[in-house]
Amino acid sequence: MFDIGFWELCLVGLVSLLVIGPEKLPAAARITGFWLGKTRNMVASVKAEIKDELQAEEMRQIFKEQSGIDELNNILEEGSNTVKEVTSSIKSLPEEIKKTDESK
Fold first, then answer.
1. How far lies 34's CA from each of 26, 27, 30, 51, 54, in Å?
2. Exposed (0-12), middle (13-18) or buried (19+): which is 28, by Cβ within 10 Å?
3. CA-wise closest residue to 14 among 3, 30, 25, 27
4. Measured between alpha carbons, how far is 89 from 85 in angstroms, rounded to an integer?
5. Domain segments of the chain: what residues?
6. For residues 100 and 80, what is the distance between their CA atoms, to the nearest angstrom?
7. What does the pLDDT look like over 55-100, one tens digit per residue?
8. Which residues of 74-87 are buried (b: 16+ CB within 10 A; e: fewer)?
9. CA distance between the termini of the chain
10. Is 104 or 93 the better-scoring residue by pLDDT?
């Protein structure tokens, strides 16, 4: 991320040794490590929450698409039932014509 190499770290260590001093440097390094660890944990937690929210949103979209597919299946089923009704009406049409002719 920051692309910090070995020599940059050595320079930061040397400057901190000169500024802070050899007596306080271990305590400062410990505190810095503690806060870096807390920061990393916080960033990892935020990433995990964002990932969970994205997965939840994807699931909502899938369910929404699935409900659209269910509606389409219902429409197709209604159409199929209508076709069956029309077919049965057409098949019974000759019988109705015969009944009408006989009644005349």
1. 12, 11, 6, 26, 30
2. middle
3. 25
4. 6
5. 6-103
6. 30
7. 999 998 888 887 778 788 888 899 999 999 888 888 887 777 777 7
8. eeeeeeeeeeeeee
9. 95
10. 93
